[in-house]
Specification:
elongated, 5 helices, 97 residues, mainly alpha, single chain
Length: 97
């Protein structure tokens, strides 16, 4: 299961689902009419970023010295996902103004 979650097929498929949901949400007004639709979309985006970082650790181990250390990988993944979330919220805030 973990191999599938960090596979290229899963990463591209999840990005496709996110993009399809985004297009549907914009065209059908789900962002404005469905409460908390945005929350699920944020969760999927975080899952996509985490999968992408796991894929990088798996396929490019020479980039990181801690590629065999579970806790170091977990901390890096959580840090990257958190940073992406904060940057995304800044982007949303700047677009809404």
């Amino acid at each position: 299961m973990t191999k599938f979650l960090s596979s290229s097929v899963f990463i591209v498929g999840l990005l496709g689902i996110i993009l399809i949901l985004h297009v549907l949400a914009l065209s059908l007004g789900w962002y404005w009419n469905l409460n908390h639709f945005d929350d699920g979309h944020h969760f999927l985006g975080g899952a996509w970023i985490a999968s992408l970082v796991f894929w990088i650790f798996k396929n490019k181990p020479h980039l990181f010295k801690a590629s065999g250390n579970f806790w170091a990988i977990l901390i890096v993944v959580l840090s990257v996902v958190s940073l992406a979330g904060v940057l995304w919220e800044f982007f949303e805030f700047s677009v809404d103004r």
